[in-house]
Amino acid sequence: MVEHAQKLGIDPDRIAVGGDSAGAGMAAGMVLHNRDAKGPAIALQLLIYPMLDNLHNTPSGPLRTTLFGTDKPRLMLGKCI
């Protein structure tokens, strides 16, 4: 986008990324990759309920084994990611 900012009619100093759920995790990963690769600065990052930790290592984690369609095999799969 920055390379084609003029053609797109955008301000290259005001690039924003965002997403929700899995898309939010992907947006966060892209911003980190962009930072590490010394890419163009990202002015804004909007993450809506991102999955940023697949370990479920929280006090409420064991309580979620049957809530909202989660079950033990799915939680185990999340640990393998």
UniProtKB/TrEMBL annotation:
SUPFAM superfamilies the record matches: alpha/beta-Hydrolases
Keyword check for Mitochondrion: no
InterPro entries the UniProt entry points to: AB_hydrolase_3, AB_hydrolase_fold, GDXG_lipolytic_enzyme
Coiled coil: none
Organism: Photobacterium aphoticum
The protein's name: Lipase
Tree of life domain: Bacteria
Alphabetically ordered keywords of this record: Hydrolase
GO molecular function, one term: hydrolase activity
Matching PANTHER family: AB HYDROLASE SUPERFAMILY PROTEIN C4A8.06C, ALPHA_BETA HYDROLASE FOLD-3 DOMAIN-CONTAINING PROTEIN-RELATED
Signal peptide: none
Domain Alpha/beta hydrolase fold-3 residues, every copy: 2-60
